[in-house]
Write a structure and sequence with these properties.
Layout (H helix, E strand, L loop, with lengths): L21 H17 L6 H10 L9 H12 L2 E5 L5 H9 L2 E5 L16 H12 L2 H20 L2 H13 L2 E4 L2 E4 L2 H4 L2 H9 L4 E4 L2 H6 L10 E5 L2 H7 L5 H9 L25 H20 L1
Helix pairs in contact: 2-5, 4-6, 6-7, 6-11, 9-13
The structure holds fe (ii) ion.
The site of fe (ii) ion has 7 residues, from α5 and α8.
Amino acid sequence: MVEHPEASEDYVIDQGWADYRAEDHAIWRTLFERQSRLLPGRACREYVAGLQGLGVAAEGIPDFERLSDIVERATGWRIVAVPGLVPDDVFFRHLAARRFPATNWIRRPEQMDYLQEPDVFHDIFGHVPVLMHPVFADYMQAYGRGGLKALHLGALPYLARLYWYTVEFGLIRTGEGLRIYGSGIVSSRAESIYCLESEKPKRIAFDLMRVMRTQYRIDDLQESYFVIDSFDQLFAATRPDFTPYYQELKRRPDIAPGVVLTSDRLVSAGVAHGGDRPRQRGARGRTDEALDRIAAD
Ligand SMILES: [Fe+2]
């Protein structure tokens, strides 16, 4: 966590939009153009529609105020600037009030492919388009409320896994095939390709308790992804009171990432619905080449 003595109780700061330099906007544009080329056919419809609806931002780092006016009209959410990662309770209070805390700094040219902490590109390009979708918007608010409760119950590590495997690294099954909705994926060139097309990771049908038992890696591409069928399914999973779930989770062992249980339903990358399996197979060679190029960069 970044310590900022000037931060207020809710850690909200001025974005300082006028202080971004030309090179900061140039980094944004490079990332934006690169991901925009990669995402058609990979990101889900809801994400793509949200990005289009925002009208952000090919030209540079968006002004959060202008961006918020658009998101607020769609789903009642606003974006507030914070100086980096904020304490859990602060984060959850923002979400519960339909405010998304986004950091205001942008990575340096040497950090294009790897960051230890989220920057403004991840926070805005990754998270905000899906906040334009009414059901996902409600899910995020429910998550914030659930987070405050989990803190109180000493259950935060379990709930954090739900955020990780949905908001950050979620996949969704669609009529056209598997698609991405997780912000950690859509903002990453390597993971946008790897999560859908590599043979390595496990893609497991979403199951709330399974997700909350599963540890995750923060320092590498994911070994497991969880696949939802719809945002409605995700939101419905958060409706019950989690208190008995947490009690059960405390009695059961954690599951390492990459492990497959006999009870898991695996989702094929080449995807269950109909006819695009051969196309996916055909794409494999090009995908491996693309991953090789990324690895060589
Ligand atoms: Fe994130």
